[in-house]
Amino acid sequence: MPSSTLGLLNHLRRHRGAFLPPDGAEGGVRDERVPYVPRLLRALVRADELWLVVLAACVGCGAGLLVSAMIHATLLAHRLLFAAPGEGRISGLPAIIPFRALLVPTLGGLVLGLLGVLVARCIPGRPVDPIEANALHGGRMSMRDSAIVALQTVLSNAVGASVGLEAGFTQIGAATGSRLGRMFRVRREDLRLLVGCGAAGAIGAAFDAPLAGAFYAFELVIGTYSLANLAPVAAASVCAIGVTRLLHSAAPGVSVVLPAELRVDDYLPIATLGIVAALLGVGLMYCVTLAEALFRRSGLPVWMRPAVGGLVVGLLALVSPTVMSSGHWAMRVALEHAYPTGWVLALLAMKALASSVSIGAGFRGGLFFASLYLGVLTGAAFAGGLALISATPLSAELCALVGMSAMAVAVVGAPMTMVFLALEMTGSLPLTAAVLVASVIASLTVRRTFGYSFATWRFHLRGESIRSAVDVGWIRTLTVGRMMRHDVKTLCQDTKVQAARQAYPLGSAQRIVLVDQSGRYVGLVLVPDLYVDTALPDETLSRFAQYRDQMLVPQMNLREAITRFAQAESDALVVVDSEESRQVRGMLTEQHALRRYSEELDRSRRELAGEKRSRS
Fold this sequence. Notes:
Blueprint: H1 3-15, H2 39-47, H3 49-82, H4 98-122, H5 130-136, H6 143-158, H7 166-183, H8 188-207, H9 210-222, H10 227-246, H11 267-297, H12 305-319, H13 328-336, H14 341-361, H15 368-389, H16 396-412, H17 415-426, H18 429-449, H19 454-461, H20 473-477, H21 480-483, E1 490-492, H22 497-503, E2 511-515, E3 521-526, H23 558-568, E4 572-576, E5 584-589, H24 590-608
Parallel strand pairs: 1-2
Antiparallel strand pairs: 2-3, 4-5
Helix pairs in contact: 2-3, 3-6, 3-7, 3-8, 3-10, 4-6, 4-12, 6-7, 7-8, 8-9, 8-10, 9-10, 9-17, 11-14, 11-15, 11-16, 11-18, 12-14, 13-15, 14-15, 15-16, 16-17, 16-18, 17-18, 23-24
């Protein structure tokens, strides 16, 4: 063991208590259901960021192992349920036995629907996904809920629903990071980082692309890139890929012929393709929302909707099996074989319909994998149309890969992820430049026309205002009840001015809270107002009451409190238990609220900038 590590261990043994927070302090409320590792190991991770990298590598290994298990389980189910030859990738098959194509998705949807009803009854609430966990909950995720999501995703994909496995991959990978982080009682920012490491490992393992996995975590799950976070995320992604390769579940490479260089005038159609793919991606997200609305209005029981959706997918699969499952293998076939433009457009429409119906009916999964195949079809169709009007058209393979990246950026919202994925898939620098242009154009187009990725759009439909995984949970946890002062000076509204002057001489207090006979809040009196010449000694204090209907409640978060101060135009407001009972609980000043808001913003800014965290 290196001498530096021995020295650190000896130092920790002597001063181990100095490195550990008390129960319920930093790192969140103690959860007795999560077992903690020995105290010395926890202190190592908190004291030295090198050990945090080691923990991130363990998270990556766990994510890689779980991704491999999900992939093998899905392929085995395809071989058994659809009699798929070889590895069991049904989306690349030329045809499927008709009765299996209809029966398996329908019955599978019925099983999934009944399972969903059972889960909803036994486990109330909904699972928290990695983006929401990092944005609102400081990286805290439920391993049990995430395992259920992963199981439902595998089941959905196994029976042929047109959904991707990436939702289950990232859910279980990120939950692994969250669980290990809580076992080591890491700091809030480190827990959020480990959640990102789990997602990086999951996506890196799914595509055999470490850079794509790392930037998926930075762009979507962590919310920002910083040099301090690079080592843990990269370690997790690389370790996850190592595990999948050892278990022979790594994604096979793609073999395509690409041009050695691009002309300057080639970038105009590439940019146009980025716009077209972005608009189609927005249309796809609207179609999913429309499908969900139609199923809700249909009157069908919740448990029956997946069966109906599975039947629709099965009918489409009779025309082409490429609409089934995630479409990962169908994407490879489309890249390596040229289809007529008319057939490409038909496949594009069928796959979009199948994905919308699958998610709208209640199958569990994501649109990332599906968007890749849809993007390849969009690019191939664009190349076919370009060949009719241009004397020097772009190659179909180039357009397909550019369309794949642009469509995924529109749906997922991670441009650098797709740039690195294209580079790692093909090793072509000219393609990478083209993908960068199309991805940036697609991202700008979606932001100006729609404003959401698929994940954040789902949050918007639920009433959440989350636009990224940047940590805003502190705003919700920093409530008025936690910030208010409890030593409130109160008087009855019928008290005479002379009595109030005797109780509160000038300079002894700034404000007096007025209450009625039952203790209900009726207003706020400024003490100097009682000493003006117009204030008669026999008057009651009710004449001087201000802000009668402006008050705060303990459940308000910091942002809501600051808004209420601005509306009331007051530098202090009374806190009551509720606006109905109006029982006084405390007081909060605008100055204190703004100072706490500024402190938290500064902390978030330093975290986003990647400034070195204190380890002692």
